[in-house]
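Help wanted!
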Amino acid sequence: MNKVETALAVAASAPVGRSLWADARRRLFANRAALLSIVVLALMVLLIVFGPMVSPWSYDYIDFDGTWRAPPQIEGMHFFGTDQLGRDLFVRTLVGGRISLMVGIVATLVSLLIGVAYGATAGYFGGRIDSLMMRGVDILYALPFMFLVILLMVVFGRHLVLIFVAIGAINWLDMARIVRGQTLTLKNREFVMAARASGVSNGRIIRRHIIPNLLGVVMVYVTLTIPQVILVESFLSFLGLGVQEPATSWGALVNEGARDMDAAPWALIFPAAFLAVTLFCFNFIGDGLRDALDPKDR
Amino acid sequence: MSLLDVRDLTVRFKTPEGIVQAVEGLSFALAAGGTLGIVGESGAGKSQTAMALLGLLARNAQVSGSIRFEDRDLLKLPESQLSKLRGNRIAMVFQDPMTSLNPYLRVEVQIGEVLERHRGLSRSAARAESLRLMQAVHIPDAAQRLRSYPHELSGGQRQRVMIAIALACQPALLLADEPTTALDVTVQAQILRLFAELKKDFGVAMILITHDLGVVAEVCEHTMVMYAGRAVESGATQTLLNAPAHPYTRALLEARPRIDTPLTDRLLALRGQPPNLLQLPPGCAFAPRCPIAIDVCTQSVPALRSVETGRLAACIRA
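Answered by r_m:
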């Protein structure tokens, strides 16, 4: 036993083998566009979280003496100017960013969890279970999205959670289909057969052997879904179905800004720029991840 | 009392094209600690026999007969009981070590998985045991290799890991489905030596599936030759290889490349194609390719009969 213990101690101190993930990370960081996007996105998140604390203004403080102030208003601390109600656009842009990013990330996580579990189960068990589960997906696909959203709004009233629910309910369908397709090819791989021949249970095979092998594809899809979800939220807010005043999101701000863009272009430019930069970053990261995780390039 | 007693095992697959007869009326027995080689061409039913033993046949399979293992009929066991046997009492080593390990998991996790599942070891106990197993299959720097990912190991090392996983729970029966086919010749020799050594140390009974008669000669006490889902000959390896009774076994032996034949000579190849398993001929399946076939051969399937003590052959002319 002593020999075993010393050998294990040696192993613990030995250099750890480079995993596929470490490999992928190295390759991702070697991709300049992706690395820059990660840095910009991190700065964006810091700004959105801490920016509103720095400003003396709050996002819903109305000042009728200070409407339509053009930026930069350094001495008045209105860095991005004010809107038609005299509200500070710097704070509103950042607070709107909180909502937009939150919707993007939470709705994507919801669709990720449901989609991966559902798709992996359907794909792994195959046969009748698969047919049944995927027909369910097809039925949900057939529901028109806008109809679903309007219906939810009418029945439950406008609420932020409903946006998560509505977007998540639609997005996990794509995720489930992608994951199911991948699982179908994975389950015939020899290591899954080897795991079955070792008596590993089905649940454990899905968790331990199938899902880790899916993560490459899924991660890429997630980074492409987040901007898509942010855009959907913007679209809903643009239609007046999204967040409710005085709370705001980038979509809602762009909507308001677009109304008065002749008189006050800054009310459009700042939120639009934040939205565009964020979407760019996510897309670049998604591209970078796809390249980094592609086994053919390894 | 033998460890494994297979009686009249038949495996058929229902496909859109018809019923594929993968294994027909196969019977054999294996004593504890014994070794059996199953030889045959692709499609002879060797791998499906192994899969039937593990209860891992495809969904469209229809199985009949009986597989008695440690006094239980595996074909009658519920799935939950079977999965307790798999990897525990019956373990399997697969053909291609390149694809049989999960690329995303460290070696220690993959060996430990079996130990945690069947022996209920804690994670740290499983690690210590994994290390011991890695040393038992002679992986150099075993402690460091435990922390490796499969792609950092060579083909031979990966196959050693697969063997370590198979031996983790000290199974009574080890199925090896062409364990050396994907490896080059020198590594092949090392792995075969390892099998012989482990058989002695662990006292495990082994079924070695291969199409390489050299492998059988090296490792197996008994050999069974399969053709088109049936056993055509079986017996002690030495006598079977020295004096084959069935014309198919003879043809296989003649088709082997030998080191003492001049390079200018052509290798003898078996004439014709293996039969279509969807539509087997009425008589002996080998008759269309058999050099000594007579009319009777194409009329009824010859039964496996004793040609001398401990020797069975399914040929009326043997």
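OP: Thanks! One thing I noticed: Chain B touches chain A at residues 54, 56, 59, 83-88, 91-92, 94-96, 99-106, 113-114, 117-118, 127-128, 131-132, 142-144, 146-149, 151-152, 162, 165-166 (CB under 8 Å).
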